[in-house]
Hints:
Helix content: 10-25%
Number of strands: 32
Amino acid sequence: MNWPQVLLPESLDELLELRERHGNEMTLLAGGTALMNRIRTGEDAPAGLLSMGRLSELREIEAGGGLLRLGALVTHRRLERSAAARQALPLLTSAVSLVANRRVRNVGTLGGNVSDADYGYDPPGVLHALGARVTLRSKRVTRTLTLDEFLLGYHRTTLADDEVMTGIEVPLPAENADWVYLKHLTRSLEDRPALSVCAVAQRDADGRCLDLRVSVRAARPVPLRVAAAEAMARGNSLADGALVAEIAEAYAQASDPIDDMRASAAYRKRLVPVLVRRALEDIENGRRRAVKVWSVQHVPRKVDSGGVIGRPVPMVDADARVTGKIEYVLNMDVPGMCHAAVHRSERPHALIRSIDYSAAMRVAGVVGVLTREDFAPHTDINPYYGSVIRDQPVVAIDKVRYVGEPVAVVAALTERAAREAAALITVEYEDLDPVYDVEEALREAAPLLHDRDEMPAGSFVTVIPVRSHGGNVCNRFALRHGDVERGLAEADHVFQDAFTSPAVAHVPMEPHVALAWTEGDRLLVWSSTQTPYAVQHELAGLFDLPHAKVQVKVPSLGGGYGAKVYAKIEPIVAALTRKIGRPVKLTLSRAEDMICLTKHAVRITLTTGVMADGRLVARRVRALYNAGAYADISPRLITNGGAATPGPYRTPNVEVESYAVYTNLPPAPQPEPVLLDRGDPGLREPGLRRGRQPGRSLRQRRLRRPQHDRRAGRHAPGRAGRGRGHRPRGARPGAAAARAVASDAVRRSP
């Protein structure tokens, strides 16, 4: 990926000067959480970026004079943690705490969020309900606009080519105002709301509304307020159910939603009055809250005294489980179903010169064969899929990258016929040099597994792979704080360790199995997957179908352990059933299950600086994860694994480099191996215990947060003199924080 030029002005005046000079040729960059994703997916291709990152004057938060003033570069996390903001406007700080995750909130800015004009963001709806105004500056003029004036549509605003948003002013509601923010999620792959409602009301002592403001997001491309509906409430009580229903229906009539991956337009249209009514009922009941509301969640308002509370309740499918009647995809059959068998590569790395399946078609009962010919450019099928990087073909297209990769798939009336036919397929290869070791794969002269310049992004938009550090680097994660070189130089002791964890098969009792068929323009899939929504998203992308036309069902799961996350064999059965027009079922043998998917092998090198009293002062980590032939979830996995390797201890100087590396081995899904702190040098070197603080163990003093006894005060009865945080002999403080992988056989290398 060719990244655009970035300019870094040091002051607002310099930014405005550059903005006037370059206009829309240079795209403004605030936090970049949305823009970088669009650059990665190809939606945006700016010639250059004008970064606002060094403008500290736009990071101020100030409350006073009936207003909360926010600089445009205030991050969600900074706003969430601001004592002044929490006291002045808890509605806004509570709402931003629901945005994505802490990593996104640490980077994403409020000004960037509003300026991006995406109907799926949280803060604009809250700001709209509060009557916020934005300040726009250029060298020629300063303007202050309401959000109704600023937001024109999806990714459309009134921001001129020479202007910059510098701040947001939010009027503070009355101290006795009631408020609620409801963020409705449909368990899609993103944390953006399918619909959100923010309501703010001021009422008199008798409960009659003096003022009501309700803003609905994702009901239209811009935030929706219905003045006539709000006026209905003035002078009346929200305890009037008919009035609340009338207000909710007015919002439904004014809505004009669209279809996207989070929800259909029809679903949103039905959802608008439901959420508005619930928000107003919460206002009437005095609930001040900002919460996520799930589409699958139902909480009864009243509990029947004859219900389940206080009584033993049997497991729903207990009888079916113990009698063997429970439904698994493995045991499913549908009329006209064909069985699939896969012809797999016997070469680790080779170009495909030709595929001959004529002998397979002559086997009695064979209905069809799926090969790369079915994914030619003239077809409507995208041959590649992947949760982070779409680099994995349904069947091998140009070459094979590991022993066991699907090259052709046979559909036949019986499983025996399918396997017999698959064995008769012949493939002509031109062998290429393979690479299995991560260190070898990182060398400049190593064989290149993927030579496509651009591999479009998958569904995990929160991960931006960094592939510029070597031809076989799938992703690179870096974490740094402090000065590691100085920390190691000042340490009394420096320890170097190497840890390895081998590839391991997950071996769930139920192997991978999937069944697919079509009904008209709908694709139906039954699968033993752990992530049906992710599979639905991948299949919709493969066949260019609306999400509503793809249905993925999972009956009881016979084990997964991370092997069955994201799309695995579902694209194969879906493509085959669309080709032959009949239901297709594919069940992997145990051998196929073990050669096609493994847990990541990892090699971790650890350099640790320790003072004589046992304090950790520096830690350098280099982690190499063997991703196998395709990315799968590796780009996301190495960020989690890399972030965990420093351990749960206070270490002022840390440097982590974590790589996912392509090799000619099977792809590696979850779970990730995370280093246990078994090599803790302070615990294995008695000499470091001199001068330790009485009453606290070495490990306790290293923990980021002091341990305490939650069951008692300073000293529990019978523990006098032992101090806070004492644990029984043999207990392991901090072990829960170091995500355990005891079964991974993490070994210290000699």
